[in-house]
Amino acid sequence: MKFFADTSDIDAIKDLADCGMLDGVTTNPSIIAKSGREFLPLIQEICGICDGPVSAEVASTDYETMMKEAEKLAALGDNVAVKVPLTEAGLKTCKNLSSNGTMVNVTLCFSPLQALLAAKAGASFISPFVGRLDDIGQDGMQLIGDILTIYEGYPDFHTEVLVASVRHPAHILESAKMGADVVTCPPSVIKQLYKHPLTDKGLAAFVEDWKKTGQSIL
């Protein structure tokens, strides 16, 4: 499974890259707004840190403007995945871009049939939002299972399932068990995967016992 960081925090991106936990980065207009940075230079900087796909989202809703924005975004780096919403205009943009070899991440997916449309349009990634479905009392992980089942039935589809709106490690665990291709989540959620009370307890015991020996490795 690939881990994408859902952030524009440069320090956090570098930290995950140093740990071998960074396969890509996803951003959206809300994340960019919180950064306080200029959009295009920020995406370019992230592309220089991360070798994997970096999702940069269009800000318009009509096809003609989406295409103009997409061309500008794609020019920022070979690893840019242009992010478009799952609308008619977004799918049309996806089809056009993917036909020319540009990576496309189709976002705001909330149903398996939407995911089917994205795959037919040639999307590189489909981003189903599990956390937002959970928020309204639906089972977000059921959506992932349905999409994977559909895609498995059509070998000509090459769209990767990118589990988005991940809120906690359980989402990552269930995604991995289902065989999802990618999860994207805030760095804080990825860091939770390191933690276990028995690891902390065991390490504390090892450190204390080592001190008793009076030795030093250095």
Question: What is shown here, in short?
Answer:
With 218 residues, the chain is of the alpha/beta class. It contains eleven helices and eight strands.
Record keyword descriptors for this entry:
218 residues; alpha/beta; 8-stranded parallel beta barrel
Please explain how this structure is put together.
The structure is a single chain. The mean pLDDT is 97. α4 crosses α5, α6 packs across α8 (140-152) and α8 (140-152) packs parallel to α9. Helix content is 51%, strand content 17%. The chain has one domain: TIM Barrel (Alpha-Beta Barrel), CATH 3.20.20. α9 links the parallel β7 (160-163) and β8. An eight-stranded parallel β-barrel has the order 1-2-3-4-5-6-7-8, surrounded by five helices. The chain has 218 residues and is α/β, with parallel strands linked by helices.
Rg from alpha-carbon coordinates: 20 Å
What structural class should be given to the helix and strand makeup? Answer: alpha/beta
CATH topological fold name: TIM Barrel
- Give the tally of β-strands: 8
Give the full name of the CATH homologous superfamily: Aldolase class I
Given the structure, what is the number of helices? Answer: 11
CATH architecture: Alpha-Beta Barrel
Q: Mean pLDDT, as a whole number?
A: 97
